[in-house]
Amino acid sequence: MSKQHSPGFLAVVDDAKSRVKELTIADLQQFPTPYVLVDVREDLEWLAGHLPAAIHLGKGVIERDVEKAVQDKQQTLILYCGGGFRSALAADMLQKMGYQDVWSLAGGYTAWVNAGLPLTKPQV
């Protein structure tokens, strides 16, 4: 079941996407390393499962915490969320903070799951 997003939210996302680079799952699988894969979803989403090797910096705290997690502003960052909207918003903000190589994963976690790719669940 897909979410119905409000027109105002979609307008803000479209504006951010005009400044953000996006890549697909296929692109990610061929993407040169190193890069930092960042899950910007909410805590409960992260706990339900995430992409292998991802770190978690939820969209609500990413601006506050990213400089502790990734000090090098030239480091490549690939952000994902559930469907590619929140990650585009977060990527836009990180670019404004001076990060120079930020990407948003189009389709996000949903596209990853639909492709049948492996997931990781944190140890609790």
UniProtKB/TrEMBL annotation:
Task: State the superkingdom.
Answer: Bacteria
The major lineage groups are: Bacteria, Pseudomonadati, Pseudomonadota, Gammaproteobacteria, Chromatiales
Stated name of the protein: Sulfurtransferase
- CDD domains xref list: RHOD
UniProtKB keywords = Transferase
- InterPro entries listed in its UniProt record: Rhodanese-like_dom (IPR001763), Rhodanese-like_dom_sf (IPR036873)
Report the SMART domains cross-referenced here: RHOD (SM00450)
According to its UniProt entry, this protein's organism is Rheinheimera mesophila
* MF-aspect GO terms: thiosulfate-cyanide sulfurtransferase activity
Q: Does the keyword Transferase apply?
A: yes
Gene3D superfamilies hit by this protein = Rhodanese-like domain
- Segments forming domain Rhodanese: 35-121
